[in-house]
From TrEMBL:
Pathway of action: One-carbon metabolism; tetrahydrofolate interconversion
BP-aspect Gene Ontology terms: L-histidine biosynthetic process; methionine biosynthetic process; purine nucleotide biosynthetic process; tetrahydrofolate interconversion
Protein name (Swiss-Prot/TrEMBL): Bifunctional protein FolD
Family per similarity comment: Belongs to the tetrahydrofolate dehydrogenase/cyclohydrolase family.
CDD domains named among the record's database cross-references: NAD_bind_m-THF_DH_Cyclohyd
Keyword Oxidoreductase: yes
Quaternary structure note: Homodimer.
Enzyme Commission number(s) of this protein: 1.5.1.5, 3.5.4.9
Gene symbol of the encoding locus: folD
Amino acid sequence: MTTLPTSRIIDGKAFAEGLRRRVAEAAADFLSRSGRAPGLAVVLAGEDPASSVYVRNKAQQTVEAGMASFEHRLPAETGEAELLALVARLNADDAVDGILVQLPLPAHIDAQKVIEAIDPAKDVDGFHPENAGRLMTGLPALVPCTPLGCLMLIKSVQPALAGLEAVVVGRSNIVGKPMAQLLLSESCTVTVAHSKTRDLPAVCRRADILVAAVGRPQMVRGDWVKPGAIVIDVGINRIPAPERGEGKTRLVGDVAYDEAAQRAGAITPVPGGVGPMTIACLLRNTLAAAVARTGVVVDVPSA
Ligand SMILES: Nc1nc2c(c(=O)[nH]1)N[C@@H](CN(C=O)c1ccc(C(=O)N[C@@H](CCC(=O)O)C(=O)O)cc1)CN2
Ligand SMILES: [Mg+2]
């Protein structure tokens, strides 16, 4: 009987717990040295149920890490000017080190305008063009949480990345582009693939590190994976699961997990892979912003 190789499952939930513990220790040091805890303001406009859960989890994990949480929940009808005024107040508030505006915003609000209104020094999402430019030019920057979490997971299984072929599928400003920049900073040879890429399976098969961030359920098939590759699945897609009962759903990533796990050297599951790293890295970025704003020296975990 032949046995199929099994890949190492990268446990993002456990890694995120460890990261949050390290951030909590550093936050306690920050408090003892500065007399105040790092503070994170999270702004939610509207009642999107998933966003509401993410915001609640962010606030709860902020408090658990010994930081101050300032939650602002605004009605869906909130005007753009009102939201911009709140951002201006948070920019001016010394107790606030990090500002996060939960996305997506209601359609009548220009999200880019809101992102650009956030003080770049408090932009813990790393979405402000100043932080994007700093990342691109190799200057110290606040880096978007999801790709930062991906890099930490990749380095947890392969600390030395120089010279490896990395393929990022997806070119969003939030994940794909910053992920490519981070891998380039690690001296990987980086390809950014997307919906117009010709022969995407062949491009993916080149990858020693394959990051899927396209938002299409199970698009990356097992035979797209180079044997032994590290596969990072950023997708969170809810699909019907009639086998669980009528009307039931389940979460899947952008990678066909069962197939890919037959070939990958290491792979992140969904749920429990990249997702939990997003909030852990948000806490890490809040601590980093507090340190950069105040000059108080504590140990900020890095990738
Ligand atoms: N301003 C921002 N908005 C949004 C971001 C962001 O980073 N900044 N990211 C996403 C949502 N998000 C956090 O905001 C987020 C998504 C998923 C998870 C997570 O832990 N997922 C779990 C599964 C959860 C489930 O069961 O539904 C997992 O993958 O294991 C955390 C945070 C969009 N908006
Ligand atoms: Mg996941």
